[in-house]
Design brief:
alpha/beta, about 220 residues, 5-stranded parallel sheet
């Protein structure tokens, strides 16, 4: 899953990005409102985390442009502005959540997972794919009740395939969901990480089938 952080405080943006990457998200960062409004429409982001006080175009302006373009991507406003009027304005423009700084990081994590889940039309926090169970609230995947030990990008690959179980996911879409714009991507990255996930699923897990020329499909019986 891919998240866009729009924040002009570089230290804050880096800290949030590292936190989200540990949870398996690919993360892009924009610090300028005008650029953010364009970037937000380039990729099917799972979530946009948006500050209000931004150079050139305010967060409210970015949100207006996103919604005016027809995007339904979940948006969390994350800002030091906590006045009721600001919250009302943000929600009226189409924000899905509003969190004031400073904030509790555990609450931030929970809100992120809830918004991503809601945006994918998956209100149930637990996603079941055969013997695989993905607890989206806890951020864990189990196989036949046992925790599945996955590295960050392996986790992200499996999450993408599980949320689209029974459907083909192209290599390009898989890479876009797992890597940020600024991350180097090897030509065989999709094959490499899918291969690692297959090994960890072993004979007890569902099969990840390669659909030649199209991508990968997680089979669920």
């Amino acid at each position: 899953m891919r998240i866009l952080i729009v924040e002009d405080d570089a230290a804050m943006a880096r800290g949030l990005a590292e936190r989200l990457k540990l949870s398996g998200f690919a993360v892009d960062i924009e610090s300028d409102g005008a650029s953010a409004a364009q970037t937000a429409l380039l990729e099917p982001y799972s979530l946009i985390i948006l500050d209000i006080n931004l150079p050139n175009v305010s967060g409210f302006g970015v949100l207006h442009k996103i919604r005016q373009a027809g995007s339904t991507v979940p948006v969390m406003i994350l800002t030091a502005r906590y006045a009721t009027g600001d919250k009302v304005s943000g929600l009226a423009l189409g924000a899905d959540d509003y969190l004031s700084k400073p904030f509790d990081i555990a609450e931030f994590d929970a809100r992120v997972r809830a918004l991503v889940r809601r945006g994918q039309g998956l209100p149930n926090p637990t996603l079941i794919c055969g013997p695989l169970a993905f607890d989206r609230a806890a951020g864990t995947i189990t196989l036949s009740g046992r925790p599945l030990e996955l590295r960050r990008r392996e986790f992200a690959v499996l999450e993408v395939l599980m949320t689209r179980a029974g459907k083909v996911v192209s290599k390009e879409r898989l890479i876009a969901e797992v890597f940020g714009f600024d991350e180097a991507v090897a030509p065989n990255a999709a094959e490499l990480y899918v291969g690692r996930v297959r090994q960890k699923l072993g004979p007890d897990g569902p099969r990840i089938r390669t659909v030649r020329g199209l991508g990968y499909l997680l089979e669920v019986q």
